[in-house]
Amino acid sequence: MIIALIPLRGGSKSIPKKNIKLMAGKPLCAWTLESAYNSGIFDKVVVSTDSQEIADVVRSLNLDVEIIMRPAELATDTSSTESVMLHIADIVDFDVIVTIQATSPLTEPLDFVNAYKKFNAENLDSLVTGVNQKRFYWDIAGTPLSYDPLNRPRRQDYNGVIMENGAFYITKRSVLTQSQCRLGGRIGIYEMPENTAIEIDELSDWHAVEKLIKLRQEATLHDRLKGVKLVAVDVDGVLTDSGMYYDETGKELKKFNTRDGKGIELLRERGIKTAIITGESSTITDYRAQKIKADFVYKGIQDKGAVICELALLTGIDRAAIAYIGDDLNDLSAFQCVGISVCPADAVESIKTQADLVLSKNGGQGVVRELADLILKE
């Protein structure tokens, strides 16, 4: 049995509430938790924390994660990671534990898969992750550590040295309990890309890693957007600004944006279908849907995820090729059923943390047109 352990202490000093601070639109801990969960290799994913606030954030991610509250003596500035690992070993049964640092959010699901393959293939007892650095190191006393200055190698001839990047460690239970250390016995190294060398300890690290994540998101998302075949949208807060308007007779009015109509027209010209899915039953939605020639209209819907599944069956379009724009909690079920979840810039925070893409525009200000432009961008 193999488990993942993500230690999440609440007492960060250099960056307050670091583990749940938003990093590129998600709590920092969400990046490693999602990667561990999506790798598919773990029998159980465990979070160890001393903070109820962190526990609540982890629960809000809707992942199958076991949260174990650690005692106060294991949550001090001097508490070791090994002490937390041993605490978990007393509570959870496992043969192998993978201890993952939330401060390395660039770790991807495939890293866990490939590292565990190496761990088994080489019959290792423990494994450490690191990056190859072709740098020359010295100690404080002026002694060279990684090369001979009298025979200074050319960079292309230098194999470099491996630096621990702190992303994760794989440890057999027997090694942990006998040595009280995360590394022991036959130790292997899993090499990761150079950009994973940054651990988030200071704000400068935070900004550097966030920039790397956003660059990676843009590249990956661009490829996924090119495959979209159906765009579904909510009404209030997406096609409208969430405002409630009434005339002098008390009749309800809604304000729509003409740019969204043009966006849907552009999608239609490319053969991309469109759908409106709303929890409201207003006839105003019918008028707008008719005007913009939406292919499908669903009103009075409580379970939007079920409608997405119905649309996939009806159209023969894979759910991975469906994008959905929503702005509030009743859109979460749809988010979980589509390939690309999208929200306006003014969506509620719990939606923004779940969205694959947070648009630059607010609801009612042309968000559908913005998404259409991204999809159709060459």
List the helices and strands and how they pair.
Layout: E1 2-8, E2 22-23, E3 26-27, H1 28-39, E4 44-49, H2 52-60, E5 65-69, H3 81-91, E6 96-100, H4 109-121, E7 126-133, E8 161-172, H5 173-179, E9 187-191, H6 203-225, E10 230-233, E11 245-246, E12 252-253, H7 258-269, E13 273-277, H8 283-292, E14 296-298, H9 304-315, E15 322-325, H10 332-335, E16 340-343, H11 349-352, E17 357-358, H12 367-376
Parallel strand pairs: 1-4, 1-6, 4-5, 7-9, 10-13, 10-15, 13-14, 15-16, 16-17
Antiparallel strand pairs: 2-3, 6-8, 7-8, 11-12
Helix pairs in contact: 1-4, 7-12
Which features would summarize this protein structure in a list?
single chain; 378 residues; alpha/beta; Spore Coat Polysaccharide Biosynthesis Protein SpsA, Chain A; Rossmann fold; 7-stranded mixed β-sheet; 6-stranded parallel β-sheet; 34% helix
The secondary-structure element order is EEEHEHEHEHEEHEHEEEHEHEHEHEHEH
Name given to the CATH architecture of the largest domain: Alpha-Beta Complex
Strand order of the largest sheet: 5-4-1-6-8-7-9
pLDDT averaged residue by residue: 92
CATH superfamily of the largest domain: Spore Coat Polysaccharide Biosynthesis Protein SpsA, Chain A
Q: Can you tell me the CATH class of the largest domain? A: Alpha Beta
Instruction: Using the CA coordinates, give the radius of gyration.
Output: 25 Å
> What's the number of domains?
2
- In one word, what is the shape? elongated
Cα separation of the termini: 46 Å
Quaternary structure classification: single chain
Q: Tell me the helix content.
A: 25-40%
Counted beta strands: 17
Largest sheet geometry = 7 strands, mixed
CATH fold-type name of the largest domain: Spore Coat Polysaccharide Biosynthesis Protein SpsA, Chain A
Structural class: alpha/beta
